[in-house]
Amino acid sequence: xxxxxxxxxxxxxxxQFLREARAVLRTPPLRAADDGLVLFSMIGTKVLLPYLVAxxxxxxxxxxxxxxxxxxxxxxxADNAVLAEHLDSPRIIPIASVDTGPCPVGGTWExxxxxxxxxxxxxxxQLDSDTVxxxxxxEIAEAIAAGCSFTxxxxxxxxxxxxxxxxxxxxxAAGPGRVHVQSAIEQAMEAMxxxxxPDLHYARGCSGFxxxxxxxxxxxxxxxxxxxxxxxxxxxxxxxxxxxQVTSNFVIANEVDALxxxxxxxxxxxxxxxxxxxxxxxFVGTHRYTRGAYAQxxxxxxxxxxx
Length: 307
What we know:
By secondary structure, the chain is α/β, with parallel strands linked by helices. The protein is about 40% helix and about 15% strand.
């Protein structure tokens, strides 16, 4: 009975959020600029409204860049018309056109590999649709200007570590029961070997918000990491949901001067108060609609966009 009540409450809060988010359709369209910055997301018809809140609120703070979208296969003609109107005719890539090569299919791998293709000529920011930019994001603007990659931290204690230390921590934190793919590969990382890359690192980040500085490597490191991960934990395990995020974390952790965003300002929402100075929140699934915080954040930025 308690679980049913929680499910009903979540549905009601989700409906409240969508009512609030519809107002984004009355805000002015953004104006794209071909200035070397790409704001990239994989979306479908179910997240059209929250996505518009996410991308327009970020663009309003950066005031630069153009939008590229990976269609998960569900966008309709009506959706595409809305996107064209509000996002200045963004490029929309069909997911079926993405070749994942030796990497897994699905689990947002098409998203990561498209980003790594685009970064050859652009600074690419990967933005999930359940994010809201509430204020100035100076750290992001500085990372773009400096040509440094960044990622949202998975938690306050995330840091860039050598692979052996990552495995030590993962084994110490491992509990009984089914092992998530992230824990499985982290425990095995100390045995990873990639030719030509003797000094490898990793950070427990969150691929919901990450920046990829321009670089010529493209997919090479991600594909090499994926092949090693498959060797170490098996193809079936590596194909589980979450392996793409691990790879995104790995790629960024091995960038020169990679930035892990300060967690007191760029955070995942875990049913805790959002401070007045927090400029960016990722409303992760577990508590996405708890206490109406997501709807409140959307209402705040839509009001600002309307002005």
